[in-house]
Design goal:
CATH topology of chain A: Rossmann fold
Shape of chain A: globular
Number of domains of chain A: 1
Radius of gyration of chain A: 19 Å
CATH architecture of chain A: 3-Layer(aba) Sandwich
Oligomer: homodimer
């Protein structure tokens, strides 16, 4: 059982910022080639789930890790509070619509996991329902993997509460970040321990494939680790360009 | 009335390849900032329609002009032959679903214009229906512009038939491009004059906003001109970061 307070939010000692940034640059070039291959081959789909507290750097990770890729082969979906129409369906209905097609990389900025996170923290979802949702999530994720050749990568961006406070504060001070400010974020931040507990419960029940817990106090390390994990996963697909189809 | 055979498919004389590439690089940095502002401000939408014959470089334009942007703020939709469900609706039904939200850049790789291009060339759409479709397209484009603050940019990638043949041939020879090969493309290419005539008819009837006819035999010039046109359009929006919303 993962206890998040025992997991460092900082990069391991052996990592140097400049070196990591250089390495990330190299990885991104390889990702560019592999994405082209993924699209050309059209046999695999990739789904990247990004979760984390407000201010954990989800938007930045998406911009800086996935920003160099061909936009024709990648889609990003940010899941917000569900609409009335969405609430009139099962909680995976709106998610399923954005599952990646073969050849595509789909990034989820937040995801179906919010239905066992924010909802539990606020008591909108009781423990019994949560247990049922864990099972449904596992079945759903297996469906995507087994029935559409989907590689699923799940990242939890792990910041310290101190770093989070710094970043939320910056949104009240930096004119280019004020648009991100939401007074409610400070209220949510007060529920930190409860959120951690619910994340730990997610890791205990929905861990196939395993979550990557990304130390995220330093953006350069966060970006390096996500890029590296994606690279490894794409390389494992052993893809190749299709031969000429004579028709 | 535009006669496409009188429009050059090559860059104007004063353009130098290296200079254009350098300039495109600079423009892309500015586009990156402006996209961030577009997203942050959330008051305008941008729709980029890209049309052109097979091999005119639509995919490359999307990769190389829009590739550096934040994938969270851009979506690309490639319109293929309509499905049975799509055919059971009006021709703009499937298009409308992909109209950009405020804050977003949406790129159409082919578009509703195929319904007055490939369909007319093959006789699936008669002249009378085409005239009605032109009107419907104009009303639809006005709706997006007037009712959702959408900046609409329409690009026709203009290659010579000789350059097209070269590129289609390359798909049979270059292993990294074979996946793009479709024997039918050579048959379509034989209908060149008819396609040009139908494009000319589009420019005559649906030209508000005006189409940008992009000389596209040289990719570096094509990319420069699209990037530059997009930059000018975004600068004209006079956007600014929103102030802090105290709630």
């Amino acid at each position: 059982m993962v206890l998040l307070k025992d997991v460092s939010t900082k990069s391991p000692k052996e990592f140097d910022k400049e070196q990591a940034k250089e390495e990330t640059g190299k990885i991104k070039k390889k990702l560019d080639d592999l994405q082209n291959l993924l699209f050309a081959e059209g046999r695999h789909a990739v789904l990247v789930v990004i979760q984390g507290m407000d201010g954990s750097g989800k938007d930045g990770a998406i911009k800086n890790v996935f920003g160099g890729l061909n936009p024709q082969g990648i889609q990003v979906k940010s899941f917000k509070a569900p609409t009335t129409e969405e609430l009139n369906h099962d909680f995976l209905w709106r998610i399923h619509q954005h599952a990646p097609a073969k050849g595509m990389i789909q990034v989820f900025n937040r995801s179906h996991y919010e239905d066992v996170l924010v909802t539990r923290v606020h008591g909108w979802c009781d423990d019994e329902t949560a247990q049922k949702r864990f099972k449904a999530i596992n079945h759903f994720e297996k469906l995507l993997q087994e029935h559409n050749q989907t590689t699923l990568l799940k990242f939890y961006l792990h910041v310290s509460p101190e770093e989070q406070q710094e970043r939320l504060k910056e949104r009240t001070e930096n004119p280019e970040k004020m648009w991100k400010y939401n007074a409610k974020d400070f209220d949510e931040a007060k529920l930190w321990d409860k959120y951690m507990q619910m994340y730990e419960d997610v890791f205990a029940h929905c861990n196939d494939p395993e979550w990557t817990i990304v130390p995220a106090d330093q953006n350069w390390y966060k970006e390096y680790l996500i890029a590296k994990t994606l690279l490894t996963a794409l390389e494992e697909l052993k893809m190749s360009y299709p031969l000429l189809r004579k028709e």
